Amino acid sequence: MSKYFLPVILFFILASFLFVGLHRDPTTVSSPLIGKPAPQFSLPRLQDSEAVVSERDFQGKVVLLNVWASWCLACRDEHPILTEMAHHKVVPIYGLNYKDESADALRYLADFGNPYVANAVDFSGRVGIEWGVYGVPETFVVDKAGIIRYKHIGAITQKDADEKLLPLVRQLQSEAP
């Protein structure tokens, strides 16, 4: 009887972890990069491969870094919200085009509009990994000092923009550098 007791206990422990995991919000995965400087990178620009985009472009201003790809369906869902934010010039939005073909990305922006100040091409995904990207889309808020202050996993909804991103951006913009 006792030889069956340990497997039954282990089964219930594993089942408990599974039960808890299934009821967690996957967009609330914390990032170890929150409160740390943005990772250094230098990647070619999507529209001009001779020019580069780097974390130095963020210096002295609050910015959003949006990780996206033309093949990402959820990116299409959030794109109108990013476009609206860019139209109102609330915050500069930089793009990190992740594991995508440049021609496809350019066509995507031509079709849906370009909310980005600049787009970095991360064809290999190396920079995305350094930023702790789990998948696309993901969006980071970087403060004036180059510190990552927030990470949003998944498509940004209007509610996310109104209740999380924009209040944080306004708060950070009002703080002294």
How are the SSEs ordered, and which strands pair?
Blueprint: H1 2-22, E1 42-44, E2 52-54, E3 63-68, H2 73-87, E4 93-98, H3 102-112, E5 118-122, H4 126-130, E6 138-142, E7 148-153, H5 158-174
Parallel strand pairs: 3-4, 4-5
Antiparallel strand pairs: 1-2, 3-6, 6-7
Account of the protein in words:
This protein is an alpha/beta fold and 177 residues long. It has a single domain, classed as 3-Layer(aba) Sandwich (Glutaredoxin). It is 39% helix and 19% strand. It contains 5 helices and 7 strands; from the N terminus they run H-E-E-E-H-E-H-E-H-E-E-H. A 5-stranded mixed sheet has the order 5-4-3-6-7. Strand 4 (93-98), helix 3 and strand 5 (118-122) form a beta-alpha-beta unit. The mean pLDDT is 91.
Sheet-strand content, in percent, reads: 15-25%
- Count of distinct structural domains: 1
* Unreliable residue runs: none
Per the CATH scheme, the topology name is Glutaredoxin
Order of strands, main sheet, comes to 5-4-3-6-7
What is the terminal-to-terminal distance? 67 Å
Q: Which value, in Å, is the CA radius of gyration?
A: 19 Å
Largest sheet: 5 strands, mixed
Class in CATH?
A: Alpha Beta
Say which CATH homologous superfamily is assigned.
Glutaredoxin
Q: Structural class given helices, strands, pairing? A: alpha/beta
Mean pLDDT: 91
- Rough outline: globular
Which sequence of SSEs, written as H and E, runs from N to C?
Answer: HEEEHEHEHEEH
How is the quaternary structure best described?
single chain
- Count of discrete alpha- or pi-helical segments spanning 4 or more residues: 5
CATH architectural grouping: 3-Layer(aba) Sandwich
Share of helix, binned: 25-40%
Instruction: Tally the beta strands.
Output: 7
